[in-house]
Amino acid sequence: MRNITFENITDTVIKSTENTSDRRLQEILTVLITKLHEFSKEVNLSHSEWEAAMGFLLRTGDISDEARNEFVLLSDLFGLSSLVDVISSHRAPEASERSVLGPFYRPGAAFLEIGGDLIKENEGQHVVFQGVVRNTSGEPLEGAMIDCWQNATNGFYENMDPTQPDMNLRCRMLTNSNGQYRFSTIKPTPYQVPDDGTGGEYMRATDRNCWRPAHLHVRVSAPGYEELVTEIFNEADAYIDSDATFGVRESLTISYDRPATGAEKEINAHLKEPFTMADFDFRLKSL
Fold first, then answer.
1. Are 45 and 18 a contacting pair, CB within 8 Å?
2. CA 248 centroid distance within chain
């Protein structure tokens, strides 16, 4: 390696990975190194620009912690998270589309019985989310687990807001023999992604807004099926066509405002009227 030149440096770096035991890792590294070097040559990257990029990454790490992952946020804002989801959905077009996990997920939410309530002391408009989990053949899946999380009316998720109770507006639920799930909650609200870190630096530099349209996050899993990570969006939201993280899909956009039928009012008699209904069925792809 004593004769590194402009012409041979990329091939030399790639050759240094030849002993990588994981073939898939070597494939990814080869393409990554190639593209990074091509990018640097194409834009004629300067020392000061490279140092600025390294400082940007350092600040990203400094602001990240157990509750906040700024790298995930940047991946969202660059559209990379959404691209990975689109690639996965493209491989399984018969299943429900995927959308971004986001940086606010927490594992271990409490289980709710079907028909359970997440509203508790939260302010906001009441809504019942309900639907069926099916396989791609349309058969309902009993015992599928739905893991849901959302923000409060102030726009914050509980792990970013010390005024909210621990695990507020989060739950897990197992579907019944008909594959059904149902729970009452408040309508999620649009919110701005955090702009006090490197994500905000990027958005200001590109003159973009930081708003996300209102949505419910969902992870759906069942034995023998691929886990689905997705979001369910309110079609009436003002930011539905300008999502900062590129997560909106037409198939994931629904009404949060369907009036409840008489039968639905009876089965949700614990709720004070008015409340509305939101209906969404999930389809899982088998492994």
1. no
2. 10
Distance CA 100, CA 246 (A): 8
Number of DSSP helices (H) and strands (E) in the chain, helices first:
7, 13
d(CA 252, CA 99): 9
Q: Is 124 exposed, middle or buried (0-12, 13-18, 19+ CB in 10 A)?
A: middle
- Start-to-end Cα distance in the chain: 45
Among the listed residues 191, 225, 222, 249, the one whose alpha carbon sits nearest the alpha carbon of residue 73: 191
Find out whether 176 and 183 touch, Cβ atoms under 8 Å: no
Q: Tens-digit pLDDT profile for the chain (287 aa)?
A: 678 999 999 999 999 999 999 999 999 999 999 999 999 999 999 999 999 999 999 999 999 988 788 999 999 999 999 999 999 888 888 999 999 888 789 999 999 999 999 999 999 999 999 999 999 999 999 999 999 999 999 999 999 899 999 999 999 999 999 999 999 999 999 999 989 999 999 999 999 999 999 999 999 999 999 999 999 999 999 999 999 999 999 999 999 999 999 999 999 988 888 999 999 999 999 99
Q: Two tokens at 261?
A: 């039928």
Residue 227 structure tokens: 């886990």
For residue 116, the tally of other CB atoms under 10 A from its CB is: 16
Nearest to 95 by CA among 236, 285, 260: 285
CA 59 to chain centre: 23
3-state secondary structure of 146: strand
